Amino acid sequence: MEREKILVNSALPYANGPTHLGHIAGAYLGADIFVRFNRMMGKEVLFISGSDEYGTPITITAEKDHVSPQEIADKYHLSQINSFNSLDIKFDKFMRTSDPEHAKDVDEFFINLLEKGYLVKMYMISPFCRELNKFMPDRYIEGQCPYCGYGDARGDQCDNCGRILDPIELINPVCKLTGNAPIFTATDHFFLKLDSLQGELSEFIDSKSYWKPNVLKFTQNFIGEGLHPRAITRDLDWGVKIPLKGYENKKIYVWFEALIGYITGARIYSEEIGKPDYWKEFWMDKNVRSYYFIGKDNIPHHTIIWPAMLLAHGGYNLPYNVPANEYLRFDGEKFSKSRGVGFTVDEVLKFVDKNSLRYYMASILPETGDSDFSMKEFQLKVNSELVDKYGNYIYRVESFIEKNGLLPHKPETMDYEDLEIMNILHNKFAEYSKEIGDVHIKRGISVWLELVMVANNYFTESAPWKLIKEDLEKLNEKLYVSLKIGQYLTVMLYPYVPSAAENIWESFGIPEKLAGARFDDVLNTNEFHVKKGEIPFKKIDLNNPNIFDIQLATIVSVEDHPNADSLYVIKLHGDTNYQTVSDLKNSFAKSDLLGKQVLIITNLEKATIRGIDSECLIMSVSDGNSRELISGSGSDGDPAMLGDYLYNGDHVLSFKELQRVELQISGHHMFVRLGEKLLPLMLNKIYINVMPENMERVLIK
Fold first, then answer.
1. pLDDT tens digits, one per residue of 299-323
2. Mean local confidence (pLDDT), 120-124
3. Residue 399 confidence (pLDDT) above 90
4. H or E element: which one contains 76?
5. Measured between alpha carbons, how far is 590 from 568 in angstroms, rounded to an integer?
6. Alpha-carbon torsion 64, 65, 66, 71, what sign?
7. What is the largest CA-CA distance in the chain?
């Protein structure tokens, strides 16, 4: 019997910076869990994504770094692959839109739609920068959104309300490169006639009552306002060429060509495995369902524009489901690659392991509304649920069996209680399967947790430590059922944390691995050869997090030290008034310091330096060539945190302890190393002008 096929596509991330947790929560972790689950259900899944390398974010980054767009694309394509691999997110193909094979597919799509009359040449009004003497891409223009009033809307889309925009719609638009207002002038381009497809699109959307309410409502509202022709080319230097003569100075716009990358990725994968037509089984068989995992800012592109392109072309399956997630927020703001809000994958994995991160992220996926990333909640959730409840259950069962040299086997009969437990296992697995099958990834974790509670109660009430003295037959039955519960829990955990689940599975002494296995096969295994019981997860331990009292303070006076030519005497206002003796005189003029908000460490042992009392330390960093203050935004006295921990007022820091501390910076984030732990230093807003490419050791000064 032929296996059911499923196509899973994850949004193509721009190759303009490192992958952050907002990306992972939006389009990738949920997709990977969904793919692993469906493969274990016995379905044949094709999982595709890739780097979007022709978007204007790439050229913006290239101009900032004074390198070519291709260098940026090469760098961050590799960076994204490494980030996904570090989290066990495994695509069948992670393609590149700069691949010549992609240009072939784009050319075919363009000519097909042009010949069918769905592409038409029209004039449009585009922003032109007089200072640079060229047309500017939409993303180079920023201003106020005319729909929601958001002040930092881009010329192509508003991040706040999700509306697709044209630069001319923005209120008070400015060019990002010059800060000046552009002029708007006419230029000819090719347009996709979305209005000609409105009827078919409306029928398509009307059949999607099972979509998430947020996705369906947004799409219905968008169509309800009426569709209009939309430009698919731009006056750009970087992009896929238009396959017609006379258009050498124009390129196909990224929102049109990048979507075709889903087809390119499937086609390249098919070539790589030696089955050139394999991709057609997923794209052209009407019985195959396709799922698109995206963030909510990509909803209109995947529920309106991409279906319109597919309808116009003909022969391809339309999206079956577009389970778009809302935003992951950090300190109340949306994670943002360009604005440096939130953590990158690499930053977080400096101080937590990938299994804990996958588990926590899966439990807070913003499936129906925005969710917040919290290090404190991260620690509590992982330690309580993954370690204390599940991990401890596995350890209790296995260590008891191993310690007593037992070999539990399936009993010939079971009492009513154990039959009921087996029934609960089957029912919970069915519930779990329905939730994930319906793309409710977070609910799947909740069902699993309910079964974890059943497991711990069962083992405690079974009291095998008593049965071993009283009834060996009943002991065998209870331990067998305990192992079956552990088996179900571990198999159900596998899509969420595959590496950890695989290791725990091995401890059951079952030769078959979970990777590549089916639920039916591994859950029907009844022979166990338990290995030595070990605690499967380690608690997240933010080692000694409360040793610093770091706060925001304003420099109110700077005077020369009366007894030292190289020192300043600086007074500051934080939660109270402070004074420090500092060597900042070697790097800053008085005028550069006066009135500046800085971060200070206040729980230092008091010192007298050349006759002047010093009671705090101003934090600064150096890359070996220059020195910069660590500044912030907020009110004087606002505390900074290590992780989610505030100073508890119990520790006075000696200068010897201070000398052992190192501060590390990566991108826009700072970390304090305490022992083997890296703790993120967090305030409402923290600014550092020195930004090493890789995390480097910089001393607190």
1. 999 999 999 999 999 999 999 999 9
2. 93
3. yes
4. helix 69-86
5. 9
6. negative
7. 91
Round the CA-based radius of gyration of the chain to a whole number and report it. Answer: 29
For 673-692, the three-class secondary structure string (H helix, E strand, C coil) is EECCEEEEEECCEEECCCCC
**What is the C-alpha end-to-end distance of the chain, expressed in Å?**
69
Q: What per-residue string of b and e applies to 270-305 under the rule 16 or more CB within 10 Å gives b? A: beeeeeeebbebbbeeeebbbbbbbbbbbbbbbbbb
Distances (CA, A) of 134 to 42, 65, 137, 142, 495: 55, 21, 10, 17, 50
8-state DSSP, 653: B
**Residue 554: Cβ within 10 Å count:** 16
Measured distance CA(382)–CA(367) in Å, rounded: 20
Query: Cα–Cα distance between 309 and 70 in angstroms, integer?
Result: 27
How many H-runs (helices) and E-runs (strands) does the chain carry?
24, 33
Q: Which of 9, 104, 481, 109 is nearest to 312 (CA)?
A: 109
For residues 471 and 328, what is the distance between their CA atoms, to the nearest angstrom?
53
d(CA 108, CA 104): 6
Mean per-residue pLDDT for 38-60?
94
Three-class SS state of 211: coil
The DSSP element (H or E) to which 10 belongs, if any, is strand 5-10
Cα–Cα dist 637/598, whole Å: 11
Nearest Cα to Cα of residue 37 among 440, 437, 486: 437
Enumerate the H helices of 440-493 as residue ranges.
441-462, 464-470, 472-493
Those residues whose C-beta lies under 8 Å from the C-beta of residue 74, and which sit 6 or more positions away, are: none
- Count Cα atoms within 13 angstroms, Cβ side, for 244: 15
627, β-bridge pairs: 622
Structure tokens at 634: 């907020």
| pLDDT tens digits for range 440-469 | 999 999 999 999 999 999 999 999 999 999
Of 258, 254, 296, 240, the residue nearest 22 (C-alpha) = 296
Rounded Cα–Cα distance for residues 530 and 557 (Å): 69
What region does 537 belong to: left with phi over 0, alpha with psi -120 to 50, or beta?
A: beta
Q: What is the pLDDT of residues 499-547, one digit of tens each?
A: 999 999 999 999 899 999 999 999 999 999 998 767 778 888 765 555 6
Quick check: helix, strand or coil at residue 107?
A: helix
Which domains are seen in the chain, by residue range?
Answer: 5-100+258-334 (3.40.50.620), 107-252 (2.170.220.10), 374-523 (1.10.730.10), 550-698 (2.40.50.140)
The top-scoring range by mean pLDDT among 143-152, 160-169, 682-691 is 143-152
Please say whether the beta carbons of 298 and 327 come within 8 A.
no
Residue 293, phi then psi, degrees to nearest 5: -95, 120
Q: Both tokens of residue 468?
A: 């071993």
**Residue type at 135 in one-letter notation:** F
Q: What is the pTM of this model?
A: 0.83
Q: Are 685 and 640 in contact (CB under 8 A)?
A: no
Contact 398, 530 (CB under 8 A): yes
Query: How far is the C-alpha of 534 from the C-alpha of 506, rounded, in Å?
Result: 12
| HSE-CB of 91 using CA atoms within 13 angstroms | 26
Cα–Cα distances in angstroms (integers) from residue 432 to residues 37, 139, 422, 490, in the given order? 10, 42, 15, 13
Distance separating alpha carbons of residues 24 and 27, to the nearest angstrom? 6
Beta bridge partners of 325: 295
Beta strand 230-231 with 240-241: parallel, antiparallel or unpaired?
unpaired
